[in-house]
Amino acid sequence: MSRIIHRDLRAPPPVAVRAKGLWIEDDQGRRYADACGGAAVSCLGHAHPALVAAVRDQVGRLDYVHTGFFSNRPAEELARVMLTDAPAGLSHIYFVSGGSEAIEASLKIARQYFVERGEPGRTRFIARRQSYHGNTLGALSVGGNMARRALYDPILIPASLVEPCFAYRFKREDETEEEYGARAAASLEAEILRHPPGTVAAFLAETVVGATAGSVPPVPGYFRRIREICDRHGVLLILDEVMSGMGRCGTLHACTAEGIVPDILVVAKGLGAGVQPIGAMLVSEAIVDAIRDGSGAFQHGHTYLSHPVACAAALAVQRELREGGLLERVAPMGAVLADLLTERFGNHPHVGDIRGRGLFWSIELVADRATREPFDPARKLHARVREAAMARGLLVYPMGGTIDGRRGDHVTLAPPFTVTEEELAMIVERLGDAVEAALEA
User: How far is 229 from 440, CA to CA, in rounded Å?
Assistant: First the structure.
């Protein structure tokens, strides 16, 4: 019996023993196509030789140093590479061990920025419903995944949740996408104005919504309006691209496609491709200058900041994306995946929406396609699809509570950038079989 506190204490998972490319093998010899990259993490596939070599080399050179004493070359070089083509105005970076830590750091640096500026009253954070920003208490406080918040609600910091930008579910038939985007963005301004002036610190949003609602891209113009609202009220804009960034949506940073620059940009997952745990917070020059010219130090820290091996792995990932041509593959391969999903599910009576960007796609399952009525949540259809897919040697990322934290099921795909057309066809075929099996169960 396993002594690990697994995610499900009643059903321990299979034991994985090796992985290569798209495939993971367990200790019983079963093979699984990793069509979701774990959770949009393994963007280069498993055991990529350049990443393996980078980790082996770095461990032999310098395994660990504490940032209270030293910096290290992999971290310095990774910072240079990341900031060379970062959105304009983002001038500094802070390396942590994952997305939740990076979100936590973003909340703290936003708070400290306003204190350094002489605005200590700015303590309120606003985010969106049906969002997810991580599992630490601070990150949960600004998240809109009700199922994950529920147990810890009494000990979360106060935060506000406004309307998501989710056209399939919330755009009216009499609205254009631009009109809907304006209405969704207006809920942010209304919430800012509901609080006393000078009390809201920041607004957080996933550029492309991740697993909570399932690969939901914003409508055109939405984030431009959000940027204008934040600027008008002196509120920082924090974009969470933990899942959607680092090439996953076809551009290195998903916000590039929206034509805006946040004050703080959070990345993780694909930053290190799963080879080592790493996340990062990219910060504007104005924020760094305020702290440098004030107290002189960011009042935050972790033991594994700028870990040399993690940074070396991430540096190898960035080189493969930029110099190895992998980033350029995402958009065309994403188009192939979109076509395959449309061909298989476009007329399916229980698939209401097929949505995504780049190599980040989801299907939303509905009881009635015409009315968009979801399945009874007690049925847990998303979990049934996951089980049926795994039985067919396919790993997908399912979620319930797509609409409101309780109702709605979707399944997300996030295959590696190295995936082939033949592999994509196999993934969609197995997914189709799994959906049918789950619906019949």
Answer: 48
d(CA 145, CA 240): 15
When computed from its CA atoms, the radius of gyration of the chain, rounded to whole angstroms, is: 21
The residue assigned the tokens 């367990």 is: 26
Element (H, E) at 381: helix 381-391
Q: Does the pLDDT at position 225 exceed 90?
A: yes
Spatial separation of the C-alpha atoms in residues 79 and 271, rounded to whole Å? 12
The pLDDT tens digits for 92-147 are 999 999 999 999 999 999 999 999 999 999 999 999 999 999 999 999 999 999 88
CA distance 34 to 247: 18
Averaged over 155-180, what is the pLDDT?
A: 97
Alpha carbon distance 365, 389 (integer Å): 15
Burial letters 129-155, b for 16+ CB under 10 A, else e: bbbbbbeeebbbbbbbbbebbeeeeee
pTM > 0.90: yes or no: yes
Query: Cα–Cα distance between 217 and 37 in angstroms, integer?
Result: 19
Instruction: Give dist(CA 315, CA 57) in Å, integer.
Output: 13
For 359, the token pair is: 């190599």
Tokens of 344: 């298989």
Q: Give CA–CA dist 364/350, Å, rounded.
A: 8
Distance of CA 229 to the CA centre of its chain: 23
Residue 410 near residue 214 (C-beta atoms within 8 A): yes
Helix (H, G, I), strand (E, B) or coil at 13: coil
Report the alpha-carbon distance of residue 165 to residue 152 in Å, rounded.
Answer: 26
Question: 99: Cβ–Cβ under 8 A, 6 or more apart, which residues?
Answer: 133, 134, 240, 242, 243, 266, 268, 269, 279
| 307 token code pair | 């870990």
- Indicate the average pLDDT of the chain: 97
Look at strands 351-357 and 360-365 and give their pairing. antiparallel
Q: Residues of 289-309 as b/e, b for ≥16 C-beta within 10 angstroms?
A: ebbeeeeeebebeeebbbbbb
Cβ proximity of 163 and 128 under 8 Å: yes
Residue 435: which pLDDT band, with cuts at 50, 70 and 90?
very high
